[in-house]
Structure formats: structure tokens, C-alpha cells
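Bench notes, afternoon.
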Amino acid sequence: MKSEKNKFRIIIVIVLLNSIGMSIILPLLPFLIGKYLPSQQVVVGMSLLMSVFAACMFFAAPVLGAMSDRYGRRSILMISLLGSTIGYVLFGIGGALWVLFLGRIIDGLTAGNISTLFAYISDCTEPHERTKWFGYIGAAMGIGKLGGPALGGILGSINLSLPFYITAGLIFLSALAAYFLLPESLLVEKRSSRISLDSFNTFSSIKEIFGFKEVGFLLLIGIIYYAGLDVFQFNFSVFLKDLYKWGPVIIGSVLTIVGICEIISRALLLPWLLKHFKEKSIGLLGLIGFVTGLGLILISIFVHSAVLISLAIVFIILGDGLFDPTYNGQLSQSTDESKQGKLQGVNQSLQSANNVIIPLFTGAIYFYSPGVLYALTILIVFLAILGYTYVLPRMKPLRSLDR
């Protein structure tokens, strides 16, 4: 029991180091890209870098997941962490825009750390314990987001490349922790017996997973929900800048609420609720909280109020903190260890596809009308609520992919 807890502590440390590292560089990306592009093209450059990374992850995540089912979680986790290390070192080196894109491509093609860690937790826990640990992973990410941007600003003022080297160092440190401290979770006898050419075809993996009705339906709910979350994440800062005329200091202060609520919802509220309610009920509560927050943003377009904005953030982040780990927990219960990696890889791949597509539609609709954008987003999330309610009595913790 003690060794199991030690495994989870190491996983939390790995996630925390990665989260701190990634949040360190976020405020500095516009300045780094500004070295190679005119100021009016910086936003385009950032969007392209994000899209390239998400596209590479879309194709790579199911492949890495299938490989972890065959060769074990730890080796794939090491590949993913080392790929990220190389990517951020290239950002630090820079010298040309193509070097930055090369760094994003390498990082994207090896981006399987979160899905592999989810599969690792699924290997080591009973089904009813997974949601709690998925919540702890999210809380660790929230802790990393709190201090990272400020630290990045300080380091960037010394030297613009320094934060990228620091991030590479933190991720390399987490790779060392995985190598020396983290034992393999997937026993040889529980691994998939072979890996076929179809395992290297992302679309074949997605088709296979969606071939199982219950799992495919749950993934579809996830696609709809994360599309709504992406609208908030990609658009909210611009929304506050345009409609409320707030500057970076005020927006940064308001968004600090995000990290605080993320920690509270996942590390404190979720474990308490799991002791008193069923996971499916908690997931539904999260969806309702999320759509309530979106509704408050829509109201704030017509009634300008900092209180409404703050409440919207609280509802959205608390809702996400309840639904996201519950959703992943339910998803993990649909198969055994031999296909857990592929399932988690497909899930991450679909979220990456959202990250490519949603910003394009969000920008176009927002340009037409912010009110229309958030009204449509509310409608979309209501579809997820209806689907989740419909599937609620029918979703069973069965090994659906093994039938």
C-alpha cells in the first residue's frame, strides 16, 4: 500500500514539474516570436505554433498509447518527456522561426505524457479510485499555473531564452524521476499481445474505439464538452480586453482565480463529494456548474460587472474540476490494462483536434458577435448535458473494448 502511494506521489511531482515549466514560458511566447515576425503577425505566428503542436499530437497520441499497451507505460513516458525537453531546448536556442516550429513538431510527435500517466494510474488503481487521482493530477497542474507565469516574467527579464532552458531542465528532471523512481505499472502478462500496422494509423484507432457504442458515446460527450471549454480558454482574455477594456495586470489578477479554483475543486471538493455521491452525479453537477458559468459570461455582455465575471470563472473552473476527472474516470473503466493506452491516446488525440479547429471557429464567430459565440457555446454544452443524462443510466463500468 505504501509503495502504491509512493508511485502516485512521484506521478504528482512529475505533473507539477511539467506544469510549472510550461506555465513559465506562456507569458514569453509573444516576445520570443516577436524576434522573428513583425508585431502585427505575432498572433498569427502563435496560432500556427499551437496548431502545429496540436496537429502532431492528434496523429501521435493514439500511436504512443498503443505502444504503451505493448511495451509498457514507463518507456513511452520517458520518450514523451525527453521529446518535450528537446523541444524546449530548441526554443531556447532559437535563431530562426523554423527552429521554433521544429521544437513544437518534436514536442507534439512525442506528446503522450498525460495520456500515459492516466493509463499508468488506471493500471495501479481500482476503478472507483481513479477519478480521485485524476483530480489530484489536475490540482497539481493548477498549482503549477499559479506561480509559473510570474517566475517566467522574472527569468525572461534577465534573458529571454533562460525560461525555456529552465523549463527543459524541469522536464528533464521529471524524466530522471520517472526513470529512477517510477516502476513499470503494466505487467508483461497484461500487455497487448501484438502491435499491428493499424496501430500506427490514427484514424483506424479512432474508428476502433468508436466502434464500441458506450465508449464512443462517452467520447462524443467529451468532444462537445471540451469544445465549450476551449471557447472559454481561447477567448476569455480577449473578451475581457475588448468588452471591459481591462489591461494585462487586471486580467492576470482575475485569472489567478482559475488556479485557485482548480486546486480547490480537484484536491478538496472532488474527494469529499466522492465519499457521498456517485461519480455520474458528480459529473452531471460539473456540467451544470460549467454551463452556469457560461451563462454568467453571456449576461455580463449586457450587464458589465466584475462580480459577474468573477462568479463566471468560479462556476466554470469548479464545474470543470468536477466533470473532467469524473469523465476520465468513467472512460478508464471501459477497458482493461491491455487497451488502456490506446483509449487514453484517442481521447487526447480528439482533444488535440478540438485545439486545432475550435480557435478558427471561435475567432470568426466572436468577430461577428461575442454574444452569439457564448450563446452557441451554451447550446453546445446543453447537448452534452442531455447526452450525459441520457447515457447516465446506461453507462456501466464494463470492459466494453474487450467484448
